[in-house]
TrEMBL record:
Domain Serine aminopeptidase S33: 30-149
Protein known as: Alpha/beta fold hydrolase
Domain of life: Bacteria
Gene3D superfamilies referenced in this protein's UniProt entry, alphabetically: alpha/beta hydrolase
TM stretches of this protein: none
Stored Pfam families: Hydrolase_4
Species whose genome carries this gene: Arthrobacter caoxuetaonis
Length: 263
């Protein structure tokens, strides 16, 4: 059976990020990194369940907590979309240092936007998957839109998001609005799988349409009918993982062959 290993690695601004490696039996088909959504963490339903199922298919996965979440050090409120992208680079550097160079990048919700932003600059990456990702990082601001005036006036405000109280700083809001993913998506010179529920009430399906229109081929879209944005249903996470494994298999095999030939 697949195993797991607790790991840690350096993050942005002197933080230490806590992660879990879901390790397949035998020789892995390839390695992946999973980037979780806004304030969700590595043990969220989407991150943990999809990673575990992928490991059963022979795909090893690193999932990790952003700073200030889980066992990662630092303060969550000090983070931003920019640090989320930077920490994806740190995660890839860590995996390469262990001899497990990732060829697949998966991002859920805002983590999907971060994946699209980071992907063009990640060497060795062969394919990207987004799940319920916004086309614009600033979309996440709708979660606390009632407090935006207070955040602008006072510099920060405590807001309730997903049953948790979070401190949202003005710097985070500004940083979300600074990022435009269109150029990153258009320059993505690798296969892209876009997964989204047509009834997602948090990040609408129009976001998937914009990502798809902006991306170049090879691009694919899978409709996750019936799935909620956070994907709490095990049936939906299993289905998503099954599809990711089937879709990415050819690209992971090609990446392994290239690595074996030294090309």
């Amino acid at each position: 059976m697949p195993e797991f290993e607790s790991v840690s690695f350096p993050g942005t601004n002197g933080t230490t990020l806590a992660g879990t490696l879901d390790i397949p039996d035998g020789d892995p088909l390839g390695w992946a990194v999973f980037c979780h959504g806004f304030a969700l963490g590595k043990n969220s339903a989407a991150a943990s369940r999809i990673s575990k199922v992928l490991s059963e298919y022979g795909i090893g996965v690193l999932r990790y907590d952003a700073a200030g979440l889980g066992r990662s050090t630092g303060n969550w409120e000090d983070g931003s979309f920019s640090t989320k992208v930077a920490d994806l680079h740190n995660a890839f550097d860590f995996m390469r240092s262990t001899g497990r160079s990732p060829a697949l990048l998966i991002g859920h919700s805002l983590g999907g936007a971060a994946a699209l932003s980071a992907a063009p600059d990640l060497s060795g990456l062969a394919a990207v998957v987004t799940i319920a990702a916004p086309f614009r990082p600033s979309h996440v601001a709708h979660l606390f839109e009632d407090e935006l005036e207070n955040i602008a006036a006072q510099g920060q405000a405590d807001v309730e998001v997903g049953g948790r109280t979070l401190t949202i700083r003005h710097e985070l809001v500004q940083d979300l609005h600074r990022h435009d993913l269109a150029g990153c998506i258009a320059s993505l010179d690798m296969p892209l799988l876009i997964m989204h529920s047509p009834t997602d009430g948090t990040v609408g399906i129009d976001n998937a349409s914009e990502i798809f229109r902006t991306a170049r081929h090879p691009r694919s879209f899978i409709s996750l009918e019936g799935a909620q944005h956070l994907m709490p249903e095990r049936e939906q996470t299993t289905r998503a993982a099954d599809i990711i494994a089937a879709w990415s298999g050819i690209y992971l095999r090609q990446a392994r062959e290239r690595a074996g030939s030294g090309s």
